[in-house]
Every structure is written in structure tokens, then in C-alpha cells.
Amino acid sequence: MKIFHKLLLLLALTGMYSCSDDFVNVENPGALAPSQYPASVADLEQLLTGVYATQHANGLYGHTMLGKNLWLWDHTLDLSWQGTPTWIQMGQNNSQPNDSFLYDTWRELWRGVQRSNTLLTSIETYRQKAPNDAAAIDLIKGQALFLRAWYYFHLVSFWGEGFNAATDGAKMGVPIITGVASGLDETQVPRKTVKEGWDFIISDLKAAEGLLKSTNWTGATDKYKVSGWAVKGFLGKIYAYQADWANAKTYLGDVVSNSGKSLVTFDVYKDMFNGKNEFTSESLFELNLNVDMTARGGDDQSMGSSVGMVIAPTYVSDNGGQAASAWSNVFPHSKNIARFGFNEGHYFKAGTTSANIASVDPAYIARSQEAKKKQTVDPRLWVACYQPYVDSMVVNGRKRPVSHYLDISELDMEAWSFRKFTNPNGTEAEINMANGANFPWLRLADIYLLYAETLSHSGDNVNALEYINKVKRRAYGLPVNAPSAIDYKSLTDLTKASDAVLKNDPLKYERWAELFGEGHWWLDVRRWQIGDKEAAYYQRIRGGAIQWDPTDYAQPIPINEITANVNMRQNPGY
């Protein structure tokens, strides 16, 4: 699937090392002269590959994005590893400006912007030399604009002092840079407002929409590319996030009615996050990855991701205890297990003093299997997580039970393992810690739920409820478009959750359960302003009590940036 990426890299390297003397800048023999490069559409495609690749650089989906920031802020996880104080503080909603993980994400997002700007500048340089290539150039430009908007989307969402342009538009956003800096002074850029940030993102996406129109990439080596429907879906998502319900209805409704996309069956869905069933009928935009035995994940030169290394399951060792399948640093917060409706008690017998398979209660196993069979628990729990001593993983070709998570001394804690974005056929070490599971970043279930939310704000509660139920029906293996016994009867019906936030809110619950662990929940928490309620529900992580202040919605600008940019101002609260 990813041979295309390797081929492009080979072509790029071949081009650099076999060019004639006049191809290089004589003032710097190691640099490519803008007057000579890019010299073809293929050169532009090489630059575009780098813009895509940055999405799975170390600070983003190559390593840090989930288990070292997003999942900490929204309490998807708890920490088994207790050796990094700033990591613990992040999980307590107390992020620090000197946090290296936070800086990694900041740096890589700006690198994505820089690469996008370099490509966009090169596109206009090449366009003047090759007017006959206009159609191909426009397709590349449309993708570059989408990707720049994607990087800015995360920058504004994570670091904007406010989130909603209508209510917080005058607050500090992030700098907006559209060109390639030629000197240090051009990097000393002050922050724009939140409104200016969202306006810029929407402007890029609207331009991409015009260039890509209804472009669909069907070739095996092109499926990862941004399509016209991906642009429309992204715009609809942003409009919904900004509570611009009129525009959200237009764009989301267009995707729902005209894109030809459809929800996959549950059997396809449950393995969609583990390197199987990629680019399905549900997918609008996926981060394309592949197992890479030549380059370890966590680097954009690798085709894989090392997210799985951080979240790796733990399994039963030969002596009946626990063993790590990789770093195995984090596990699902125990409150999340209950939120899916699991209340079958604990797997260890009362009075257990050591985490050993011999201490497992057989009655618990029977109750769990019955609950799963009768679907008294949300089936998506087992899509997102491995259940200790019930589920198994493969280690060096041998199936082993998943264990109580490693290094968790609290034996009464529901210490399950993550399943999404882990390797189903072995350990992370067996795939060079370069996991090939794609990240389906924008998919139809997300669109359906945003559309339902939009319809509810447009006075159409009947159809809003129907789109929520479509997503729920799929989760229970039922026909998506036919009414069923498990349907919600109203927008305030009971859900599987018992907490005050989600108990009587099917829309919020379905977004939480359906998209669990995919990196969207924190932005829902932020836009709905429910951070205090979520902190009250989760209460604590293993490193201490979860704290909450209203300023916690915006992350601290990394101290490295404050030092490097004299015009940068810190967010309040830090």
C-alpha cells in the first residue's frame, strides 16, 4: 500500500544526487536552487509527500498526539508509567510550558505549516514556467491547502486562548504565516485572534474546495490523498464546531446525501483501527501508514507510527504474571470502562494480593462473556479496549491472555489495555515499533453525529435522532437504516453511561463511545465547555487528583517558543 511513498522518496533522492552542477545553488552546494527546482509536476508531488508525511511525525500521529497529549487532556487514559512528572501533570489538567511532549506537537504542527507554505510557494513558481500543467498543479495545490488548514486547525484548537470565533473571537489565537521565511526577523510573528485563525482555516478549505471539487482518488496508490468530499466534510466539521449551524447543515448534508459514503458493518468497523479494512466506504480522510521494518515509527521518514509502542497491551507471562508487549506506558482510565456500561465486577477474586492469572474469578469470566453476547454492555468497549483475562493478543506467534495492566499495584482497578491502533498479529517490537494501522481521521460516523447535532439546532429533532440511531444500530450489528429495539426514543433518552454528563444525552454519549480513542473528544469537551464536569467525573489519575480551571482549555505556549519569538505572548493561567 505504501510502496508509493518509498518510490517517491527514491525518486527524490535520485534526483538530488544525479543532477547537473547548474541544478544546485553555487553559494550553498547542498541546497536546491529555486530557479531550477521544482522543474516538474513530479517534483511538486515529492514536496507534497513531505507535507503528508509530517502528519505522522514524532510530535503528531507518529508518536505523541494521542498517548502524550490529547488522551491526557480528555482522560481517555491513565498512566502506568510514573517517572515523568510533566506527563502526570498533563493528565491532571495541569500542562506545563516546559513539557517536551507538548513542545513536540507544537513544533511538528508548525513544520507542517512550513512545508505546506514551501510547496504553495513552489507551486506558483512552477505554474509560471508550465502553464500547460495547470490541471495537475491545481490538484496538488488543493491538497496542500487542505493540509495547511489541517495543521492550523490543531494549532488553533489546542493553543487558541478561546475556541469559538463568535464568542471568543477577539482572544489570542496563533500566528498566521503564509510564506517562507528568508530571515530570523520574519519568524518573530505575533499571535492573531481566534477569529482570524478560524477565518484563515476556512479560507484555505474554501480554496481547496474550488480546486478539488468532486475529485475522488480511486487508484491503489492514491487513496490517501485529499478528495473533494474530504474538504467538504472538514468544512462541515469546522462549521459545527463553531456553532455555525447554517453552513454546517449545508456542508454536512451534502456529504451525507451526495458523497456516496456509507457506514460499514460492525464486523468491518471493529477491525478498522488495526491495520485492516482501510479506506472503507466510511472513510473521508485517513492518515496512511504501513509497517516499516527499515525505519522505526515516530519519525516522518518511517511509513509507520509508534503510537502503539506507548499504548501497547500487557499480557500474561509464562509465570502467570504480567509482561509488557512494548513500552506499555498507558491504559484506559478505569472510569471509561464503566462509561460503556460495564458493571460486571472485577476479574480478581476478593482478597487478591498479586496480579496473577491464578487469581482470576471464573464467575467474572462467565458474566463478562454473557454481557458481551447479550449486548448489555456497549459493544464498542471491546473495539476500543482489550479485557484482561477474557481477550487475547498474539506474542511471537502464540496467543496469550491480556493481563491486568503492567505496574498497576491497585489490584481493584479496572486496568484494561487499549485495542485501537495496536498490532493484532504480534507485539510492537515484531513490527519495528512502526505500526501500520491507519488513522481514519474523518469518517462518516463522525459526520452523521455532527449532522445530527446540527439538525437538533435547526429544530429537526426527528431526523437528528435518526442519525444518532444509525450510528448506534451499527454498533450493535443491526441494519443501519431500519428502526430497531435498541433505538433511542428521544434526545434525552438513557444511555449506557451513568454519569451526569452522558447519562441522558445520546448525542454526547454516541460521540464519546463511537469515536473513543480517536482524538476527537477533547475538542468536543472544549467546544461544549464541559471540562469542569469531566474533571469531576474522572476525579483522579494514578499520579494524583485531577484539577480544573477555565484556562485549562488552552494549552500553554511552549517555553521554547516564548524564548525564540519575542512577540509571542503566553496564554492566561500559565
Automatic annotation (TrEMBL):
Residues 294-574 form the RagB/SusD domain. It comes from the Bacteria. Pfam families: SusD-like_3, SusD_RagB. Keywords: Cell outer membrane, Membrane, Signal. It is found in: Cell outer membrane. Residues 1-20 form the signal peptide. Residues 34-239 form the SusD-like N-terminal domain. Belongs to the SusD family. This is Outer membrane starch-binding protein. It comes from Dyadobacter beijingensis.
